[in-house]
C-alpha cells in the first residue's frame, strides 16, 4: 500500500513527512515523480490534483486517501481514518480537502509550485 503525493509541492512534502511519522512506516509514502504510476494505475494529473492511496488494486483520492492511509497505519490514528469515512464527516472532509488542495500554495510552507493549476 502506498500514499502518493506531489513531491514538487513543499506543503505536500511537509504533510507527507508528518504522515510518515503518524503511520510509523506502515504505509509507503512516495512522491508521484518517483513512483511507478503505470503499475499503480495512476496518472500524473491525478497526483497533481490530490493525494492518492493505492492498496490491493483499489485507489482512493483526497480525503479518502488520507482516511485509508490512517486506517492502514494500525496506530491510534486509525480511529481518525474511520471517522473520516463516516457519512456525516466525509462530506465536510471532502469540502475541507478541496479547499486545502486548491489553496495549498497559500498555506504555510506553500510556494507557487504548489498551485494545482500550474
Give the helix proportion (percent range): 40-55%
Order of helices and strands: EHEHHEEHHH
Number of helices: 6
State the strand order across the main sheet: 2-1-3-4
Major sheet description: 4 strands, mixed
Could you list the spans in which at least 5 consecutive residues all have pLDDT below 50? Answer: none
- Number of domains as seen in the coordinates: 1
Number of strand elements: 4
Query: SS-based structural class?
Result: alpha+beta
Gyration radius (Cα, Å) is 13 Å
N-to-C CA distance: 28 Å
Shape label: globular
Return the average pLDDT rounded to an integer: 92
Can you walk through the features of this model?
The chain has 118 residues and is α+β, with helices and mostly antiparallel strands. It has one domain (2-112). 48% of the residues lie in helices and 14% in strands. It is built from six helices and four strands; from the N terminus they run βαβααββααα. The protein has helices spanning 10-22, 37-40, 44-49, 63-72, 78-84, 87-103, and strands spanning 2-5, 28-31, 52-55, 58-61. It has a four-stranded mixed sheet with strand order 2-1-3-4. Helix 4 (63-72) packs antiparallel against helix 5 (78-84). It is globular, with a radius of gyration of 13 Å. The mean pLDDT is 92. Keywords: Membrane, Transmembrane, Transmembrane helix. This is DUF393 domain-containing protein.
Amino acid at each position: 500500500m502506498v500514499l502518493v503525493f506531489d513531491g514538487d509541492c513543499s506543503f505536500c512534502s511537509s504533510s507527507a513527512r508528518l504522515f510518515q511519522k503518524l503511520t510509523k512506516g506502515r504505509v509507503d509514502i512516495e512522491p508521484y515523480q518517483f513512483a511507478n504510476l503505470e503499475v499503480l494505475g495512476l496518472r500524473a494529473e491525478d497526483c497533481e490534483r490530490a493525494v492518492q492511496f493505492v492498496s490491493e488494486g483499489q485507489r482512493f483520492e483526497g480525503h479518502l486517501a488520507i482516511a485509508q492511509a490512517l486506517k492502514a497505519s494500525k496506530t491510534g490514528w486509525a480511529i481518525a481514518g474511520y471517522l473520516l469515512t463516516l457519512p456525516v464527516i466525509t462530506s465536510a472532509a471532502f469540502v475541507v480537502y478541496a479547499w486545502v488542495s486548491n489553496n495549498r500554495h497559500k498555506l504555510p510552507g506553500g510556494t507557487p509550485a504548489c498551485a494545482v493549476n500550474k
